[in-house]
Here is the input.
Amino acid sequence: MKKWIVSVLLVLVILMIGTVSAENGMDVVAPKTAMETLSGPVSLPIGDMWYETWDVPPAFFWSGTLPAPSSDGPFTFYSREDTCLYVTDAFDPGDVFEVSDNEAVIGTTNPVPAYDLVPEIGDPVVTFTDSRFSKGWWTMAGGQEHSVTLTTVAGFTGGRGYIMVQPGACPSTNVPEFPSAILPVTMIIGLVGLVFLIKRIR
Here is the structure.
């Protein structure tokens, strides 16, 4: 076979591999941060806010026939006081997660219809407040070691979710609001505008 034919075939194979992607915004090749955590516990910092990233945590990944356990974790943390554990889906709505602590199921995120969203939303701060995405939060008792595992029980066969833990017990029933860097800026702009308005009136 001529060398140029072999070269063309090799390029076509590479292009075919490059165009394949997993469902729900997850690449075929898992990021290094996810692969590194396959074999052991992952420390979950208390008080760190989640954000759009490939880093584990706050991200976690799964792949395969449902129910599919997360390839990351278990996520471990300890606090003398009660804490609140938060879990949310991202990218395409529909993924539902069963959450366990020390191998005992503590709950499941709320069921939602699964569909491809255009454009996808990868920011957990946004998806947590979006009713189209599955989410949940649980108060974790203080004074004991927690080891949290996640299993995707409905939705897509691969994707990314997010997890975080905050100090203090969870709020009662309403979706909690998290602090944002935008809020102080908005308040300052509002105060400046109010000062100018008072000066104009005088």
About this structure: Residues 182-201 form the longest helix (20 residues).
